[in-house]
Amino acid sequence: MDVVRLGRGPEAPWKSMSAEELENQYSPSRWVIRLGAEEALRTYSQIGIEATRRARATGRSLLHVPYGDAKGETLDIYLPHEAPEAFPVFVFVHGGYWQCGSKDESAFMVEPLIAQGVAVVTVAYDIAPRGNLDQMVDQVTRSTAFVQKRYPSNEGIYLCGHSAGAQLAAMMLLADWTKLGVTPNLKGFFLVSGVYDLEPILYTSQNAPLHLTLEDAQRNSPQLLMALTQPADPTCHVLVIVGQHDSPEFQRQSREFYQTLCRGGWKASFEELRNVDHFEIIENLTQKDDVLTQIILKTIFREF
Questions:
Q1: Nearest CA to 105 among 113, 94, 115?
Q2: Residues 246, 24: Cα–Cα separation, whole Å
Q3: What are phi and psi of 174, to 5 degrees?
Q4: What pLDDT was estimated at residue 3?
Q5: In what order do the strands lie in the sheet with 89-93?
Q6: pLDDT tens per residue across span 110-122
Q7: How far apart are CA 94 and CA 165, in angstroms?
């Protein structure tokens, strides 16, 4: 397939890549330098499963809470040990290229955050092939509204998405909340190693279970849509975060999305975290002294 001919415009760097190179750029496990690709994926899953097991065993948790009527529309809630009437809520949307991953192996950050009085919510959504991207965006929208309705006195909802989850979380910047009858108290976004322009995905093997068309990709690309949107809350802090060992395309996408946010008047920050890859950047959230853990806590408690 000639991605140069089929792509959107000559200015996009990915348009000049061969199909093989494009596949390589959008395969995060191939850029891990500490492990082999398969071992990196296996280790990531194992750390997530173990962190979730610990969180469920030791914390105050409400598991598999339905936020909608469909079977897959559930979330897990982890409350601080001594929860006051009001607390900040950190909502995590897992990655997995919209086709794998689960809330049941995504509670990496629960222990460090609840120890500081922050509730954590991990969201399930219907991954492909059962779900399509429009459905996933709708599910994350409704799950966010559900959290607001359940905890109306919250001290801020902070949305975090990793990889594909970063795209889903970023789409919440564009959400029309009026149809859901509630406006979530969104105070911050942590968009970690994300893809914000989905068009390159069309020309990789990742699209096989997704069946995205060009129109689907454009409709769900925050990079293309943010120029049409003004910040509803100019104090909402959007942090775009990428790893030093993410692929050049993932790094480019993050930088360009950050620049788009800045042009649109959003309160945005960009962080390239040293010595971490696409998976390590989230794995390390199990540690209270991790750089990203501290960025999250400082943002929530307004120390930036």
A1: 94
A2: 12
A3: -110, 0
A4: 41
A5: 60-66, 74-79, 119-123, 89-93, 157-162, 186-192, 237-243, 267-273
A6: 999 999 999 999 9
A7: 5
Tokens coding 112: 């460090």
Q: List pLDDT tens digits, range 130-170.
A: 999 999 999 999 999 999 999 999 999 999 999 999 999 99
Residues in the chain: 304
Task: Give the catalytic positions in this structure.
Answer: 163, 246, 278
Residue 2 pLDDT level (bands cut at 50, 70, 90): very low
For 236-256, the pLDDT digits (tens) are 999 999 999 999 999 999 999
Token code pair at residue 304:
């930036």
Structure tokens at 245: 């060992």
Nearest to 253 by CA among 223, 225, 287: 223
The maximal CA–CA distance of the chain, rounded, in angstroms, is 58
Location of structure tokens 């192996």: 105
